[in-house]
Design a protein that fits this description.
With 119 residues, the protein is mainly β. 0% of the residues lie in helices and 54% in strands. The chain is globular, with a radius of gyration of 14 Å.
Length: 119
């Protein structure tokens, strides 16, 4: 099993930056994809960004392209999300997720960290 813990959330003004981090621990051989999801009140959880083990395959939601950057350090089993030029609509609970098989689902989730962007 993979246990995930996020940290780095907080309150920031529009136009500011935050860096989220997620640390994985537990009993596993490797993690194929890691990702960041977010969910705002009353809205569906959405995929913000994902990254493959080799970092050669990344995905970004259109709403965050050019502003967010996902990265990972396999030696440390961590994944990060650098968020720049934050907008009020980025306000949400951000969740770290992981899966151990490329064709599988994200079956390991962190508890979430709140990101609030004030206007």
């Amino acid at each position: 099993q993979v246990q995930l813990v996020e940290f780095g959330g907080g309150l920031v003004q529009a136009g500011g930056s935050l860096r989220l981090s997620c640390a994985a621990s537990g009993r596993f051989i490797s993690i194929s994809f890691m990702a960041w999801f977010r969910q705002a009140p009353g809205k569906e959880r959405e995929l913000v960004a994902s990254i493959s083990r080799s970092a050669g395959n990344t995905y970004y939601a259109d709403s965050v392209k050019g502003r967010f950057t996902i990265s990972r350090d396999n030696a440390k089993n961590t994944v990060n999300l650098q968020m720049n030029t934050l907008k009020p609509e980025d306000t949400a609970v951000y969740y770290c997720a992981a899966k151990q098989f490329n064709g599988g689902s994200y079956d390991s989730w962190g508890q979430g960290t709140q990101v609030t962007v004030s206007s």
